[in-house]
């Protein structure tokens, strides 16, 4: 009896701890840990009161603040662009001041073909008006409603613009390629041009005034037959248009319009 008592005094604590471990494991298995989760939540819930953003209301409020901050940043950017645009418009002669407009419509299927502006005939815009943006020529007003107008971009495949090489006077027709680059087909077989030369609308253009910036010669193919061609990097950021200015169509444009060597005479913009 004495021996059993001494054995229990030495081993009883270990047996008790082992029993608690086994019992806890069995309970976790039966409840799939639910009891432990509830116990953890009960212990940590008082601490969450002192942690910012811990409640669902705080998280919603933080999300709303971030949303407002994003909207404010966007409005600031728009305001800066609009101030720059209006400052530019005020420098123009009163009789020929352009109409500021914003791009409000653009389809992924014709991203490089056309855009829709938020100003129309009620603002004085008519078909044939010229559209410019930072960098130079953007396109031509193709159709108008009272409140909107659609622009045919110079990057459109069917767009044709009479252009000249600044400094050398070499001339040709600029055609869109549905990208940020265009193709310039020269009237001459061996034009006086090199990469880096600047391109502007020419006096031969029937729809645009001369001297509007268009782009820069990126590469040149003098072996192309029957006439040389060049790839032109367009100056305006046509892929990300936002604000533009709309000008009345030019008057008394030069009607002479020579064509590249590989084409029959036809009208170009």
Tell me about this structure.
The protein has 269 residues and is α+β, with helices and mostly antiparallel strands. Among the domains are: 63-97; 160-235, Thrombin, subunit H, CATH 2.40.10. 30% of the residues lie in helices and 26% in strands. The protein has 3 helices and 12 strands. It has helices at residues 2-31, 34-48, 56-90; strands at 99-105, 114-117, 130-133, 136-144, 149-153, 160-165, 171-176, 181-186, 198-201, 213-221, 229-234, 243-247. It has a 6-stranded antiparallel barrel with strand order 1-2-5-4-3-12. The chain has a 6-stranded antiparallel barrel with strand order 6-7-8-11-10-9. A hairpin with a 4-residue loop joins strand 7 (171-176) and strand 8. The protein is elongated. The termini are far apart. Mean pLDDT is 77; it is low at 253-258 and 260-268.
Spell out the key features of this protein.
single chain, 269 residues, alpha+beta, Thrombin, subunit H, six-stranded antiparallel β-barrel, six-stranded antiparallel barrel, 12 strands, disordered C terminus
Measured as a percent range, the helix fraction is 25-40%
Computed CA radius of gyration, to the nearest angstrom: 36 Å
Beta strand count:
12
Strand order of the largest sheet: 1-2-5-4-3-12
Helix run count: 3
- Note the gap between the termini: 117 Å
Low-confidence stretches: 253-258, 260-268
* CATH fold-level label of the domain at 160-235: Thrombin, subunit H
CATH class descriptor name of the domain at 160-235: Mainly Beta
> What would the average pLDDT be, to the nearest integer?
77
**SS class:** alpha+beta
- CATH homologous superfamily assignment of the domain at 160-235: Rod shape-determining protein MreC, domain 2
Q: Provide the succession of SSEs.
A: HHHEEEEEEEEEEEE
Share of β-strand residues: 25-35%
CATH architectural category of the domain at 160-235 = Beta Barrel
Overall geometry: elongated
Summarize the biggest pleated sheet.
6 strands, antiparallel, barrel
């Amino acid at each position: 009896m004495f021996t059993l008592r001494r054995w229990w005094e030495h081993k009883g604590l270990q047996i008790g701890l082992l029993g608690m471990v086994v019992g806890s494991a069995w309970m976790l298995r039966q409840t799939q840990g639910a009891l432990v989760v509830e116990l953890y939540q009960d212990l940590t819930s008082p601490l969450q009161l002192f942690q910012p953003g811990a409640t669902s209301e705080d998280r919603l409020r933080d999300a709303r603040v971030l949303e407002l901050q994003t909207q404010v940043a966007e409005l600031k950017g728009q305001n800066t662009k609009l101030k720059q645009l209006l400052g530019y418009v005020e420098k123009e002669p009163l009789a020929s001041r352009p109409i500021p407009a914003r791009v409000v419509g653009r389809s992924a299927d014709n991203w490089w073909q056309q855009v829709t502006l938020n100003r129309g005939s009620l603002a004085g815009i008519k078909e044939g008006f010229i559209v410019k943006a930072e960098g130079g020529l953007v396109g031509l007003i193709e159709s108008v409603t009272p409140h909107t107008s659609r622009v045919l971009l110079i990057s459109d495949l069917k767009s044709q613009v009479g252009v000249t090489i600044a400094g050398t006077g070499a001339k040709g027709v600029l055609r869109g390629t549905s990208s940020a680059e265009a193709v310039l087909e020269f009237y001459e077989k061996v034009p006086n041009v090199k990469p880096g030369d600047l391109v502007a609308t020419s006096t031969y253009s029937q729809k645009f005034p001369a001297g509007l910036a268009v782009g820069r010669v990126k590469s040149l193919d003098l072996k192309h037959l029957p006439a040389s061609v060049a790839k032109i990097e367009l100056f305006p950021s046509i892929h990300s248009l936002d604000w533009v200015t709309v000008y009345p169509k030019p008057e008394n444009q030069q009607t002479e319009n020579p064509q590249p060597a590989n084409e029959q005479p036809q009208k170009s913009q």
